[in-house]
Structure formats: structure tokens, C-alpha cells
Design goal:
- It is a single chain.
- The chain is an alpha/beta fold.
- The chain folds into two domains: about 10-285, Alpha-Beta Complex (Spore Coat Polysaccharide Biosynthesis Protein SpsA, Chain A), CATH 3.90.550; about 300-415, no CATH class.
- The protein is built from 19 helices and eight strands.
- The chain has helices spanning about 10-20, 35-50, 70-75, 105-120, 135-150, 165-180, 195-205, 210-215, 215-225, 250-270, 270-275, 300-315, 315-320, 325-330, 345-360, 365-370, 375-390, 395-410, 410-420; strands spanning about 25-30, 55-60, 90-100, 125, 155-160, 190-195, 230-240, 285.
- The chain has an eight-stranded mixed sheet, sandwiched between helices.
- The protein is globular, with a radius of gyration of 22 Å.
- It starts with 8 loop residues before the first helix and ends with a helix.
- About 45% of the residues are buried.
Amino acid sequence: MPPTVELAPETDARVQAIEETDILIGIPSYNNADTIGHVVRAVSAGLAKYFHGSRSVVVNSDGGSSDGTPDVVARTSVDLGAMLIRDRQSPLHKIITPYHGIPGKGSAFRTIFEIARRLKAKACAVVDSDLRSITPEWIEMLIRPVLSEGYDYVAPYYLRHKYDGTITNSIMYPLTRALYGLRIRQPIGGDFGFSGRLAEHYLDQHVWESDVARFGIDIWMTTEAIASGARVCQSFLGAKIHNPKDPAADLATMLMQVLGAVFALMEAHHHAWLDLDGSNPVPLFGFPYEAGVEPVHVNVDRMLASFRQGLADLEPLWRQVLAGDVMEQVCSLQGVPDQDLRIPDELWAKIIYDAAVAYRARVMPREHLLKALTPLYLGRTATFVMDTQGLTSSEAESRVESLCESFEKQKPYLRERWKQFVTT
């Protein structure tokens, strides 16, 4: 069994004083003083409006913020009268605690799961601390399927700009869907609902000192829920608007972290996906509607230049990763004019599948392999942008679905290569 998570003494005392709860909402944070107040108000209002008879706890699991984030959480309240909430409320408890362990969101979640276990929480949710579009209704949509419908895991379903979340659109959604047979649209969405028993299952897994816990906690939660046989659904949350990510952030590092996590999970759970074909829809709760989303600006010329530079510099590495016919198709793009350059769906699926096999087989240091995929990813992203420039975000969704179907159709290719080159 993994070791029990140690809580700070004052946190432990607070948990013992509360004893039990019906609902627990976790908010991991690190220097989010400018946004976390809104998140806490929305959570508090959602609990009061939709679960006024339930015992509820909000847990802020903080990574050592230097901007006063925990103080904002402590002093934030909501005027229920202004929201026309008249029902008598059960007291809402707050627990503000540091988390311990390796830096990252995973350690924050681990502390939240441990508090949920000790309080015997029936239903839980985690929401990001930089959300600007969260509403009280999010809390109902993340918690109600667990409490009332018996689901163990509630994935978010957001409205997003067609060029927002390109790693999800081009890799994580198609790959997760093809592997595990469930059409979970946002497998790394960041805001989830889950049952108390699933929280205990998460705690019992041996990942908490690994890179998966540090960099890939969102996809791990989704994959672990599926692989464990949990009942899974989705809830429509509307638009997701949060603080913009640092435009200077290293894309290669981000891609390495996400792909490293999903490839490691493929290895750990290959018995769950290897012989599975096709996919099934996942129940979606809520009332889908159109909403405005923030525009996302992309530079296609820069993406294509990066892809061409990769062809010039990384061909020896790519030949170690990609099958011969796949590599030849990639090389054939060298002389194609920019306006006509495309990485087709079928080719892209095979590139990702080849990379997964090469990762498992350790054909080179894994960090080198993952970083070498960045120009290919940018080439594929440029393909999507050029193919959808005249489409609305909802119309572009059909292109994402077509890509998913290609991943499913090419799964026998993955299966053959996995069994051929990897000892299972």
C-alpha cells in the first residue's frame, strides 16, 4: 500500500473537528490571488444554491504561494441574499492547507484526495484556481451525476475556440478515445467530479512520486477511472476562460510532459486497451448552448517553418521512431509548397502510434524522442488551421471527429506494431 499522506498538524486538527462531509470541492493553487476569489465565490454559491442541505467542505491545497492566495481564500465570502438564495444553509467549512511532495498539481490533488478520504466524502470535485468563466452551475454539473446518478467520474465538456486546446484536439482526445473506447471530449480538461470511492482508489496508486503525478495528473485521472471500471460521464460547462498561458513557455517541454504521461499510461494499462476496437459515446449531462469564446491567434508560417527545420535537422531521429513507409510519407512533404502542405489524418495517427511504440521500446532516451515530436506536432497543427480557416468552431469540430475515426481505423496498425516490437 502507498504510504498515508501526511497533513499539516493544523489541517489534521481541522479535519478531525469537521469529522465527515457529503461534498468536498478542491481548489489547487499557486500564486492565483487575482482569480481564486471568484472561483471560491462561485463554488460557495453553487453549493448553497444546489446542495443547501448537504454538509460541504472547500479545500484550498496551496503550493506555497507568495502573493497571498490562501489569505484571499480565507476572507472570500458570497452574498447569498443578492443571489436570491433563501434556503437555510448547512455550514460551509473551509480548509486551507499547504501540500507536500514533489512540486506540481498532482501533489495538490493527493492532499485533496486524502482529506476527502478522512472526511468520508460522498462526492468531490476539483476546479482550477485561475478560472474566469466558472459559475455556480459548474458545481451542480460536476457533483449531481455522482450524488444522484451513481457515476464515479465526471469529465468536463467545454466550449472552446477551434484553435484552443490543440494538443487535446490532435492527440489526447483521438488517442484516448481510440485506446479505451470512450468518447471523452476533454480528457485533460482540469475540472472534474468524482466519487469518494474513486478518490480512495486514486490514493492507493503508486504514481505520486513520478513524473505522471507531476505533469500528467489530468490525463492520469481520466485514464485510471476508465481502466478501473468506474462509471464515467461528461457534464456540459459552457465556455472555459482562464488566465492565458505564458506565450514564452517551451512548447517542446509541454508536449514532452503530456505525451510522456499518456505513453506511460499506455504501457501501464495495455491489457485494458490492446484488443479493444471502436468507441462508444459517453453520457453528457447539462444543456449545451452556444457561447462566445476568446479568440486564439496562431502563426501558421512559423509552424510550417518549424516543421521544415525538423525535416532538415531531425530526420535521423525520426527514422528511429517512425516505420519506413510512414517516414517516407513525411519526407515526401519536403518539396510541397506551404499552401499545399498537409499531414493527413491517417498519417498523423500512425506517427503518434509509432511514437508510442518507440517510447515503450526505448529506442532512444525518452526525453529526446518526445522533444523530437514537436516539429511534427506543429506541422499537424498547421494542417488543421489551414483546413478550418473558414469554419466556425462548431463546424471545425467535425474535422476533429474525422481525425478520431482515423485513429480508430488505424488501431490494428498500433496493435500489430506493439505486439511485434514490445514484449507484453
